[in-house]
Amino acid sequence: MDYLLEIDDLHTYFKTKKGTVKAVNGVSYRVEAGKTLGIVGESGSGKSVSAMSILKLLDGNGYIDSGEIKFKGRNLVECSQNDMYQIRGNEISVIFQEPMTSLNPVYTIEKQLNEVYLTHQKISKEEASKKSLEMLNAVKIPNAKSIMKQYPHQLSGGMRQRVMIAMALACEPSLLIADEPTTALDVTIQAQILHLMNELKREKGTSILFITHDLGVINEMADSVAVMYCGQVVEMCDAHTIFARDNEYSHPYTEGLMTSIPRLDTPVGTRLDAIPGSVPHPLDLPKGCKFAPRCKYATAKCMEEEPKLEEVEGNHSVRCFYPEKEGRHATK
Ligand SMILES: Nc1ncnc2c1ncn2[C@@H]1O[C@H](COP(=O)(O)OP(=O)(O)OP(=O)(O)O)[C@@H](O)[C@H]1O
Q1: Contacts for 256-263 with beta carbons within 8 Å, 24 or more apart?
Q2: ipTM of the complex
Q3: N or C of the chain: less Cβ packing under 10 Å?
Q4: Predicted confidence (pLDDT) at residue 45 exceeds the cutoff of 80
Q5: pTM for this structure?
Q6: 150 in Cβ contact with 109 (< 8 Å)
């Protein structure tokens, strides 16, 4: 299999006054060339920190403790900040939920987009402007010529996000990290942006690491999925497997996520099951399986020992002592 990115047993920690926060605690996942890996999980599960570790864009108190991040065969953990400067925006780009945090309010769209080209390519200002205009057209910004002269605050949220996508894709990166890029947008604009990203992925062959807490978005975007909980991947498989009702294996946490969303074929009046309890505090993680205190199938073993992420069938791994759905009985 041709993997563009392979993360293996990554541990990313933060030093805080109260102790070491193990935000990413042994994460492994892979992104195939030209495909989208969706990372899903509740707030605080380590989705963003695992992605920011790839770019080495961690807060000052954060560090990669151990593990490997192989991108095109090169271990990024060992790369210097100087090497990373060449890789960021050129080979790997990122778009965030709130484009205003990445766009500079005092420069026009043209200046900011040109800057991306001028930083990474040896071209003139005029050529950069020409490419910037082409890129705004590629992300379907109407009246792109006049938008070039505008400042970020003059654009709507959806338009700003399109500009961000244009900036992120300007240098044709092999990998685009999209961290909840549509969460702040209303649903029709969200659908347009997702559609646009899928189109650009098909046209340019860009791989995407798509972070979201929304399984509906995963269904729309992902070829494969990694479900994260408490800084670990608890299940990884093809996207269609996770949505198949008759799949033989699953992690109880994934099962909980699936039953907590409404589906078109859910009979009217059916109660949706929320996962009981809440995500444990990262400084006070349970001893055995991190999900055990909230899991209706947990046994004494789950409270004491930690399961490993193990392959249960081709392309499908689950971190659970009881991955087979058949025969699993609620103990709570
Ligand atoms: N600078 C920091 N110092 C201490 N802890 C941090 C720091 N940055 C992140 N964390 C902690 O790391 C954990 C993982 O955070 P992360 O942002 O990756 O979660 P997430 O799954 O992306 O959630 P969300 O959807 O809310 O962004 C959280 O418990 C968070 O509080």
Answers
A1: 256/294, 257/40, 257/215, 257/227, 258/215, 261/215, 261/216
A2: 0.96
A3: N
A4: yes
A5: 0.90
A6: yes
